[in-house]
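Do me a favour: review this protein, sequence plus structure tokens, and tell me how the chain folds. Record follows.
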Amino acid sequence: MAVKIRMKKFGRKHRPFFRVVAVDARCPRDGRVLEELGYYDPMVPETDARVVLKNERVAYWLGVGAQPTDKCAVLIKKYGPNGKCLEAQKAAQERLAQSRRRPTVDAE
């Protein structure tokens, strides 16, 4: 069985959301998956916080011969197990979490 690492599309019109999945190459884009490996949300304002991957599982699937699609290969190269932007990703996720927190209001 040929395994591909590709994106499965979710979301609605003008609000895409993708899951990065390991899937049999013969299955349709939104068909049955073998395993979910993470997600990609292109609408997040912080560029480096858009991707979250399970690095151990990505390394496993690449180790057993799964072939990533072009876009997934770029994401894995940047944010995968040996990614070159992992520190920037962690910092961007922290900044995003800080901006989403609500300030506490003292009740008098």
Q: What stands out?
A: The chain has one domain: 3-100.
